[in-house]
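Lab manual, section 2.4: Encoding a predicted structure.

Procedure: take the sequence of the chain (318 residues), apply the prediction step described in section 2.3, and record the output as structure tokens. A sample record is shown.
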Amino acid sequence: MRLRPLFKKAAICAAAALASSMTLAADFPDRPINLVVGYKAGGGVDTYARALSKVASKHLDGEPIVVVNKPGGGGLIGGRFVADQPPTGYSLYLSSAGSMVLRNLAKRQVVSSQDFRMVATVGELTAGVFVPASSPIKTLPELLEKLKQSDKKLRWGHTSRGNVWHIAGVGLLEKNQLRAKDIPFKGGAGVRSALISGQIDFGIIGAHLGRGFEQDIRLLAVLSEKRHPAVPETVTAKELGVAFTEVTSPIVLMAPKRVNDATAQQLSEKFVAMANDTEYLKVMEAAGLPTAKLDAQASSDLIQNAKVEWKSLVGAGK
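Recorded output:
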């Protein structure tokens, strides 16, 4: 077999393919980008997506972002859909990445972070510790002391075992060598309703979910190192000197794994610019949701670190 002509032909084809990909990258984007959210409209992740869509055309050469809601499977059905799309950069997934990481640590799911290329991190959902407004407990240290001294286990609510808020609660209890009876509910609204009706003694859900319900539930602290923009007057566990493991859900943009380097780089730069846009920041401030501005590499590092830090908590929460 004459290999030289074959090598020459292969080299020509490779050069042509490279030139074609560079041309495509230079023209990117030339049509709307679909941003898939794995949850119903109106939730936290959806709010981030729609805030991005408001500023998208300024950063995408006039092209818009189309938000597509594909709920189901705890957000993972939408993720699987995007992972299976052609790697053109025109189909992206906006993930509540903490939930994806935790569920895959417990058991391999239909989709995981390994099926994607990280693009950017534009926000973060953070846990808060709530009690009913009628509760005599006023601070997080008081709650922990009550847990230590109680003859029976206190009841606490979360949004399903293995979920971000459940593992955040497990981290708080484990760090302080405490026990309580966990009761799962359907979504943060379910936990909030259980708090209001007195079905549980305390609950751990997104800190932003207390807005508008201040007369019904009391936020004791945010399980974070920094204060939450929705409730800036509320102290953090760190400020109180309370031991905890920070379990949050970064809001991460992901592209199908085989997206080429040039397109991935452009996407990262454009979405970081959107996350820095004044209009985006104002929308998120009004919604009371924290923002972030991490590029592709920082987002990938964030996910990898979370896998390491949270692995032990998944087993403890079973």
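Check your result against the sample. Residues 169 and 204 are 6 Å apart (CA to CA).
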